[in-house]
Amino acid sequence: MATLTVPTSRTAIPGILRNRAAAKLLALAAVAAVLVPLANSHWGSNTWPHTLTVDLSHPLATASNWVIDNRDTHPLFLYGFGYVSNAVVLAVRAVYLTLLAAGWTGVTAFGALVAWRVAGVRLAAGTAIAFLTCGALGMWVPTMQTLALMVVAVLTSVAVGALLGLAAGLSDRLDRALRPVLDTMQVLPAFAYLLPVVLVFGIGVPAAVLATVVYAAPPMARLTALGLRGADPEVLEAVESLGATARQRLLTARIPLARKELLLGLNQTIMMALSMAVIASVIGAGGLGDRVYQALASVDVGAALAAGIPIVLLAVVLDRVTAAAGEGGAQPRTIGWPYVLAITVAVALATRLLGTLDWPSGWTLHIAEPVNRAVDWMTAHLYSGVPVVGGTADWAGHFTTWILDPVRGGLQWLPWWSVLLLVAALAWLIGTWRTALTAVLAMAAIGVLGVWEPSLDTLSQVLAAVAVTLVLGFAAGVAAARSDRVERALRPVLDVCQTMPQFVYLIPVVALFGVGRAPAVAAAVVYALPAVVRITAQGLRQVDPAALESARSLGATGRQQLWQIQLPLARRSLLLAANQGVVLVLAVVIIGGLVGGGALGYDVAFGLAQGDLATGLVAGAAIVCLGLMLDRVTQPTERRARKGA
Amino acid sequence: MSTTTTTTPNTPVFSVDGLWKVFGPKADRIPADAELAALDPADLRSRTGCTAAVRDVSFDVRKGEVFVVMGLSGSGKSTLVRCLTRLIEPTAGTISIDGEDVRAMDKARLRELRRHRAAMVFQHFGLLPHRTVLDNVAYGLEIQGVGKSERRERAAEFVTKVGLEGMEKRRPGQLSGGQRQRVGLARALAVDPEVLLFDEPFSALDPLIRRDMQDEVARLHREEGRTMVFITHDLSEALKLGDRIALMRDGRVVQLGTPEEIVSSPADDYVREFVRDVPREQVVTCRTAMRPASPQDPANGPAVRPDAPVAEAIEAVARAGAPARVMDEGKCVGVVDHAQLLDVVAGVAASTGAAEAADSHAAAAAGSRAAGAARVGAAAPRKRGQATPPPPRTSPEDV
Amino acid sequence: MRIRTIFTVAAGVSALALLTGCGAADMTKQASPFANAQGAKTVTLSVQSWVGAQSNVAVAQYLLEHKLGYRVDTVQVDEVPAWDALSQGRVDAILEDWGHPDQEKRYVTDKKTIARAGDLGVTGHIGWFVPTYLAQQHPDITDWRNLNKYASLFRTAESGGKGQLMDGSPSYVTNDKALVNNLKLDYQVVFAGSEAAQITQMKQFAKEKKPFLTYWYSPQWLFKKVPMTEVKLPPYKEGCDADAAKVACAYPHTPLQKYLNADFAKSGGEAAAFLKKFKWTTEDQNEVSLMIADQKLSPEEAAKKWVDSHPSEWKKWLPSTTHR
């Protein structure tokens, strides 16, 4: 009996799928047949009909003026936000002064000892070297400023995230309410978060910290809830069978059982906070991000790199140490916490007595100049006139003319309702009717906000960049999955690309590709590529070895194995890679407004630069909607059904 | 009626009467409605959307006995044992422990019950992976608020008792399956409960280790005489450990009796199929097999105890070549000869569904791992012959 | 239970109120958390994204640190937000402002949180420029009336069929879209998005001697690297740029201004006095800018070089009592 059912069900699946897809499309077509003529007769234009837009610029401008005029008098600010802002400033200042008091030796010693305690000797050495490099690049003080900001932001994010996660982990209703919000917050470009906080808090450290918290707390909340919910039900039942109270169950079982997720949450929060701390330099975060930003203003790639390297080092060290803490548990005890503190204090005191708290100015390396020479050489030789293949500027021109323009033209030529239909069809085919509805509503909201045209412009850039990213990423991923050597060679490159602040990419791409949309796309591709490569390679490597073995035993060639076994079985990973790629590309395409990408990114930058919050906030909201739509359209159903893929 | 238990207690430890557990919308109405209550599982499901995991079950667990609840996966046995301490809230019926109504208990009293009176051992152990063996064993005491040094001391005692001395500092992840279950056992023992509840404790273990653990439980029972409720899907385990066995099918108890009663006089065809392959001579006692002694029987011949399994008598009869006398306290209560012994071995005539019985055995073994997870749907229809193929999966979950 | 929660919250809030001193927390009176660390007197200067502004700040920073014993923090903020930050005291001074009448009215006249600190000594001018090599080839290109004739020269992938007029950072004052419209020019404004991107692009064009038309301003060090000629627009008359949508005239010449936070101006001591006196010429600023932007000296090194070679100029900015 069993042998009979298997083949029938297997052949039935594609049939049913096709039928279901066809059914979905039919249903959609039926709805469209009714609605489209109606919509078309009322508002027959290609672009979003003007009568359906709501002009928010006036109320927003009024609100922004009100805030500025009342910030020093209104009780809402004096007794509400004022305290928040004060608390942030006091906390950052306290941490910063502590770090300065510990001096470079104290901080380095503390970092190394903590790494030793949690993750062993190798990471301890790595941590020490990382801190010393920060000093050697002349970035000690900015590094400490960023670190102080990070400490406060991360602690706050963790506290907020853990509390939210705890609530969502314990209450089903809260979980249902919070999960879509958190999921969505994670896919939004960091840039979109900046304006609302600036509106309330003005430029400066409090706004930067709060934007960072808003950006970095969701992963903590998600993973906390996930960890609490993912606990082995039999363990919980056992605990209950022993008569534990709800509190005991939480403290002795659920939280310890969620340790891995909690530490993973901490890890992700730190990484997101760091990337945000850099972007937040646009709103006055100071520190390393500000150095990058200032260096870029004078087209000084070398100086930008000198500030970028400490960021990468901080990121790598924090990532490795927290990751090791998450996996840890079995490693031998190295050093007790009291000793860590005692040694740190001793070292700090010793340096203070010797009077060398500040990084000695003679010990600074100047890397800016050689780097700039290298970049100059590169751009001088690659920009144009390279025989046969043409220069990068020519590529950029062709890319713009032959790909970006047609895609943008095509999107803007399509009647607005057909864009909505297209979004609905795609989202429904890949996901459920819910995801389709969200996607369509998000897209419609863009129209209502009155930024239909620039949003389609941004969308065309995203689509082009995603296409390039996926082609390159899948190719590199396949190569990495098939050869250990390739993977080993790629890994450090991917690590660095992923942690490098997005800003650092911008100037080299302008130097190579000129001003316009092409460099924005190029920067987006470079930024999104690592994640796509990594997820693809991982997915391919995780394919059931038994399936591969059986294919080999049937005499399949390497190519056949790849196309017939590995790629189909890794479908989920590939979809996830596409989803991630879209999210990351969008983030950078927006920042690409700073290099001539125009569209929504420029509007946000304009809003920030001119203090024109109306323009900025509307563009920011459109980015949010666009991100939501893109995420839903590329989101495979399983991600909803399964917990936290 | 003959019984193998040596003590006859007055009040049962657990007394279960008319117990129902129904999963699904408006579950309350089903036990109350005689017509709904009489439906078979498939009809019940299609008419109400509910699944009755336990239907109208009644039994007593006597002090000091090992009470086995046996059934295939989906028969409702795991739900039943969880209802005893209200880890799953029953839908209808009464449960009392030492005469006290369990369903009427408030939260504090129920915690008291779980802390001191009934401790459970789980199929997949339910250990806390972040704690050492010692702290896992001490966990129940910690919950009760026992001080650190005292609970560790007591826990160490039980670690030794289950044969894990020297492993106190290890974590569950570093132990084998059998060792983990010993930890689970020690944890349950450490709180010194009146009753031990076992939920298929050994079905996740290798056969050899399983036998060791069964011996361990038998030894503990011999030494301490603690009352035990033991859930299993393994007939031989049930026969080996159980003083009495309740055999469940589709949420109902189809037969309740000593191993011997179940093997020698199955209540219906289902039970008959179930016990078909059991070596009867190992289970049936001479007391059941014997015929009354007649004057012409020889007075010397070999002697056997009435409690001895028939296998023993066979050996004796074969050796002596003469009928054996069944001797109880020096008195001859009966005689077994070739005829009776052969009857026992031949047993009841083979049933028509023999192949299926063997089949269902295999299915039970395969399904046992999923038993805990699929508890909600446990009592779903298992009608053979009209089984529908599983719904097609569109998601590549198994990638 | 609920009452207890409310009580706890109330207690927490009042404790917080007690801890923070008085009842109100005015966040417009907060300094940067990084200011005044380790007992040093700190001045926070706003740096705008263009190099000229960096030069001002570099020299001021060098003198404040080395001659007056201050610690200087710099924060890069765009122009309009910088006004806001200045009014809140998060930065103490803006050294180069190109004219923001709205902000000036709000903060200086109405709220009095910002004080004028005099001229920088440099006059700024915005305009449309073509590279001089192009102007030599086509001398009539420097009149806006002839721009349409040459539109095809400036065509790029971004501008589609029209000529490209490159604009820079979104923070700059620009009327270019309106100008193109109102002067009926066959051009497309392409926003480079940041000055860095714009400069990079201009240098690339210049290296290849390609034609380009760009929004640009002086003083700017890039003129030394890429000589450019201004395109004449209809002349500027007072008030011709009042309605942003109807502008059809050139940009004005603006004497650049310095502004201080009002409190800092009063109680900022030597630093405030120094910043008020700080005044130099376009040539001075360009000299430092060129060192920073083109020779890639760090701002500090560039400032040191200039300070070492122009003692007579900066000596008069220092308070007479200090001679370190």
TrEMBL record, chain B:
Key words, A-Z: ATP-binding, CBS domain, Nucleotide-binding, Transport
Highest rank taxon of the organism: Bacteria
A GO cellular component annotation in the UniProt record: membrane
GO biological process, one term: response to osmotic stress
Molecular function per GO: ATP binding; ATP hydrolysis activity
Compositionally biased residues, Pro residues: 388-399
Residue ranges of domain ABC transporter in the record: 39-275
InterPro entries, per the entry: AAA+_ATPase, ABC_osmolyte_uptake_ATP-bind, ABC_transporter-like_ATP-bd, ABC_transporter-like_CS, Gly-betaine_transp_ATP-bd, P-loop_NTPase
Region (Disordered): 367-399
Biased composition (Low complexity): 367-380
UniProt record similarity statement: Belongs to the ABC transporter superfamily.
Protein name: Glycine/betaine ABC transporter ATP-binding protein
TrEMBL record, chain C:
GO cellular-component term (any): ATP-binding cassette (ABC) transporter complex
Signal peptide: 1-24
Alphabetical list of InterPro entries matching this protein: ABC_Gly_betaine_transp_sub-bd (IPR007210)
Listed name of the protein: Glycine/betaine ABC transporter substrate-binding protein
Gene3D superfamilies: Dipeptide-binding Protein, Domain 3 (3.10.105.10), Glycine betaine-binding periplasmic protein, domain 2 (3.40.190.100)
Keyword terms: Signal
GO molecular function list: transmembrane transporter activity
Residue ranges occupied by any ABC-type glycine betaine transport system substrate-binding domain in the UniProt entry: 41-308
Phylogenetic placement of the source organism: Bacteria, Bacillati, Actinomycetota, Actinomycetes, Kitasatosporales
